[in-house]
UniProtKB/TrEMBL annotation, chain A:
Protein family: Belongs to the class-I pyridoxal-phosphate-dependent aminotransferase family.
Record-annotated Aminotransferase class I/classII large domain positions: 59-409
Pfam families: Aminotran_1_2 (PF00155)
Annotated keywords: Aminotransferase, Pyridoxal phosphate, Transferase
Catalytic activity: 2-oxohexanoate + L-kynurenine = L-2-aminohexanoate + kynurenate + H2O; L-tryptophan + glyoxylate = indole-3-pyruvate + glycine; L-kynurenine + glyoxylate = kynurenate + glycine + H2O; glyoxylate + L-phenylalanine = 3-phenylpyruvate + glycine
GO MF, one example: kynurenine-oxoglutarate transaminase activity
A Gene Ontology biological process term: alpha-amino acid metabolic process
Protein name listed in UniProt: Kynurenine/alpha-aminoadipate aminotransferase, mitochondrial
Automatic annotation (TrEMBL), chain B:
Protein name: Kynurenine/alpha-aminoadipate aminotransferase, mitochondrial
Family of the protein in this entry: Belongs to the class-I pyridoxal-phosphate-dependent aminotransferase family.
Cofactors demanded by this protein: pyridoxal 5'-phosphate
Domain Aminotransferase class I/classII large: residue ranges: 59-411
Gene name as annotated: AADAT
Record-linked Gene3D superfamilies: Aspartate Aminotransferase, domain 1, Type I PLP-dependent aspartate aminotransferase-like (Major domain)
Keywords, in A-Z order: Aminotransferase, Pyridoxal phosphate, Transferase
A GO biological process held by the record: alpha-amino acid metabolic process
Pathways involved: Amino-acid degradation; L-lysine degradation via saccharopine pathway; glutaryl-CoA from L-lysine: step 4/6
Amino acid sequence: MNYARFLTAVSAARKPSPIRILTELQQRSPPSLISLAGGAPNPNTFPFQSASIKVKNGQTVSFDEAAMKRALQYSASNGIPELLTWMKNLQKNLHNPPTASYTSENGQMDMCVTTGSQEGLCKVFEMLVNPGDNVLLDAPTYSGTLAALQPLGCNLINVPSDQHGMIPAALKEVLSRWDPSEVHKPGSTAPKVLYTIPNGGNPTGASMTTQRKKEVYELARQYDMLIIEDDPYYFLQFDKPWAPTFLSMDVDGRIIRTDSFSKILSSGLRIGFVTGPKPLVDRVVLHIQASTMHTSTFTQLMVSQLLHSWGQEGFLQHIDRYVTGCTAICALTGLTAEWHSPSAGMFLWIKLKGIADTQQLIMQKALEKEVLLVPGGVFMINSSDPCPYVRAAFSLSTPEQIDEAFRRLSSLIKEAL
Amino acid sequence: MNYARFLTAVSAARKPSPIRILTELQQRSPPSLISLAGGAPNPNTFPFQSASIKVKNGQTVSFDEAAMKRALQYSASNGIPELLTWMKNLQKNLHNPPTASYTSENGQMDMCVTTGSQEGLCKVFEMLVNPGDNVLLDAPTYSGTLAALQPLGCNLINVPSDQHGMIPAALKEVLSRWDPSEVHKPGSTAPKVLYTIPNGGNPTGASMTTQRKKEVYELARQYDMLIIEDDPYYFLQFDKPWAPTFLSMDVDGRIIRTDSFSKILSSGLRIGFVTGPKPLVDRVVLHIQASTMHTSTFTQPLLQRCMKQSLSSHRVIEFYRGQRDAMISSADKWLKDVAEWHSPSAGMFLWIKLKGIADTQQLIMQKALEKEVLLVPGGVFMINSSDPCPYVRAAFSLSTPEQIDEAFRRLSSLIKEAL
């Protein structure tokens, strides 16, 4: 694949740090070499000495003095090696990506650690999207994605979707505006980027079927588009077997995937991953090198030690334990509303019958009734379009609170009609 | 000040998260309100339970179960409130910024936490710099800044400097190309941004005098420029009293300052701060909201509990001062005939000019390895890295005095052979 055609000018202009080359030289040299080259501070002057983190299963993650010094010092921009290795093995086991065995120019699977998968997403968008570009996505979608994309001045084109995610026939229709044989011509306005959340979408809770993914992939091949597979709820799928991912069918090296540990390990630590073709991951890493420099070494070591002690099996067991707790919510009766039960994630997307726009209802009346939900408009490409939906999260409230909340919502709707 | 004229189109287009408004509503409501609005995961499912971090002075920083739950959950994009409050008080104490008492539109001092001060710098550049813009800085400068700026397609204009930093007369000369009364005209190419590292510059070790800062500030006023004061070695100044900062003289609200704890608390934790006029800090926070979302909620309290002590301890400064003295002493011993340098009053670097060598790139990349000594060829800190440069940068942070001495012996031998 020709990856250069996807890059913005800014991304293409990024260069590796020349000092990094010196670090590599040092690492390849005998210990008798004395380097006064590295600009790192002396970790002996840092006040933290050691750490002990208790894990719920009785284990402990420990940093002795040597580990602590490492945890407090600069590290590689793409991530610490042992965490990257663990994650690459996980990806190979879960998705068996065709690209794992490719050469670099052909899109060899590569990975980097990011400060939350949102940092990865933002840097991927900033790598690919120019003002005026057409970008495809299925709205309603995650408001954080809209916040990252909209300022870039692109033209967000909606692809219709339903409870099974993006509709391939609708995508085909949207794309029919362009001639596939002309997408590489200079000045072509054909979209180069398609974004979707394939499992437990935020806010819709929708999950794509394997068949639909295959059809969408085929269309991406025809029009030579990259697909951004944003999958933070992948590990929150309620039923086995888990759906095959775009990454698992990526014979061309056109999938950039973001994974998150925010929903299963910690949201506040800020740790996520980008998986994609090496030429593109390299660009993201160069941007990281100039901004955050790397995700906190301390955080990576903490998570890495935990993951190594669990192994992949222990990791998947932890997920099982968490996920079985979440399925209780969907017994909604008496609500004058429609919804589809999500098979993954944390959200229920509810259409209120007879209400054209939920914005006013929520922002004014709901407070009086002491119940808060998110008005659906915030997830639309155009947030001022009237939207009859609300998003309810089932992550934080008890079943009793959820029940009471829906009773209040039901009363609210009835009064409004 | 009119801050809107400084923003790129992308920065100006950023909008606050609509969901954030719901969070604020929830916080203002009685506990009987039930919210199904927040999209946060349930922290009871996270595997980490508690933490205990030993500090070298004998203390322990502990996270009990409740503190750990908070540390593992999403938090505000501008930083956790107690850390921000602490830092704002620190800035007021150290710099007494005039802007601390201004209204928001007039550039009230505001702050945010960033994932390293480099994240702050990068987001400030991305907020302000359009392709084709003229940006002023004094090269040689920090290579990370060049890496963040160059891809933005701006035109980096060098302002000459010496061992006391940027030279105001030289800045005046550079600026004389433009008419100060025309800088606000549409299509004006006058620079809007000036960047400098005022203490212990990387790589030069230069520190600006107060007088020079005042003159540079005056020129920034004349041409209505913003000054980015990048000050990661502020806390590594070897002599007291510490120099007044640009922030301390900022009557207009045109200073954006980045502070770092990388050199005194931890580089790997990734924590830094932006201080500046609220309208500009707000833009940076909106970008953070769309990218990292916030600096790790675990890291922030960890750092905060150690900060007060670290800042009042002299041990770190004593260590680096001792290291500097050792390096200068070895330089005097081995390099007197073959090189020139100025002793730095802050930071971690010595900037050495090798006499009779036009360009150190080859010398280092080929010969130095044979002699088993590594230093950074000065070209990497230049706006144009392929220009010949007779300097090398030596760090005195990590090596022992014995290693430094041996390294300079090897360097001396290397230079003599090359001549």
